[in-house]
Amino acid sequence: MSSVSSDVFFDDEKLQQGADENFVEMEVFDILDQARRENPALTRKEEITIAVNLCKEKLRLLSDSDEKEERTLRQGYLDKLIQLGLEKQTIDDEDGEKEEIVRVRGHSFVIQPIRGRNPTCEVCMTTIWKLMHAWRRCKYCGLRTHDKCTSSVGRMCASSLVTRRDFSLNMNICQEQGLAAQNYRCHECAHPLSFEESSTLEPRLCDYSGLYFCSSCHWNDQMTIPARVLHNLDSEPRPVSRASKQLLAMIDNRPLIPLAAANPMLIKLNSSLKRITRIRSDFLFMKCYFVSCRSARQLRILQYLCRHQHFVESADLYTMSEMRDIVSGKLLEEMEDIHQVFVKHITEECETCKGNAFICELCTDKQIIFPFSDNVSMCCKCLAVYHHKCFELRSRFCPRCERRSKRAPVDIDPNERL
């Protein structure tokens, strides 16, 4: 008997749920039918917007009710809202429609789809329910916010800061200044801060800027601090504010760290850095060979550098990701492999590159040498290459410069001819 009664109860529940779903469908159909009579040119996307607004209003009215029938009805409206949202997203994907870009304080906010997890609005600090709320994301720094909250954004976009001509990374390890220096307020939103009151007022230190922030502006995100890597080779992630996190994430692959200028002693004391500096210097010489070599251009040999293309543009600048790889030892291994490929092409595989080699004119050794060979020196005027020992023994005398000076035309004073 118990099994029969439970089956009957289950069937009644299913029937009630089906009736509620039909009621929701009929209600949506009626309001759309009325809208079509008022505006025959109504598009399907506009119809979906009307139906979504109806479902939201009904859910708002039923939100405080705990009765069983109304809970089932509320679930019916929620299911219909999900169905309409997915249909609207499908139409947007098929049409390839681009929503209007909202620009606020350097941000470029673009409307986002309803798929994926529900993020947190970084303005009002509430959850963005994608099926219920329109939301936007900055296409540069990634700041997420409700569509209605975009006008209240107070943080400057990290891309606007990075693209300024006077932008430079903070290369000094920041010292804590204390809350008194900030008048006991959050540096970004001016929210009151205190160590003694509730956790909502707890100040959080940003290790990049050395300033205190509230929990809304500091989510305990952890990033590698440029100054600590530069001075101590310390790549351990540390807590930073949201603004600093977005800034550091944006410049992670940009060559902005002048290692030799900012901390030259680090290169002298660290053998790995010393070797990387030598390899980068060799890359600049090798680039001259590759530019004049048709085979190297066809092979696109410089693409071996991939994300390190700035290595053939300067010998000093590094990115934050490269600094982390220096600490872990990955960068040196990668550079050694690329260096071997380049050396093999110039010295063994390519006759054109080998034809641009040098022979030391200061000794009887006829073995060819290159600017990137070991134990060689280069004349700073004509760029001729000699053995380092030979060049120093001859007091840096350059036969090539001497020949050029002899061939140079001699200016004769016209008065002397007469």
UniProtKB/TrEMBL annotation:
Keywords: Metal-binding, Repeat, Zinc, Zinc-finger
SUPFAM superfamilies: Cysteine-rich domain (SSF57889), Multiheme cytochromes (SSF48695)
InterPro entries in the cross-refs: C1-like_sf, DEF8, DEF8_C1, Multihaem_cyt_sf, PKC_DAG/PE, RH_dom
Superkingdom, taxonomy of origin: Eukaryota
CDD domains, sorted: C1_DEF8
GO MF annotation: an example: zinc ion binding
Keyword Mitochondrion (UniProt): no
Cited PANTHER family: DIFFERENTIALLY EXPRESSED IN FDCP 8 HOMOLOG, PLECKSTRIN HOMOLOGY DOMAIN CONTAINING PROTEIN
Family: Belongs to the DEF8 family.
Official protein name in the record: C1 domain containing protein
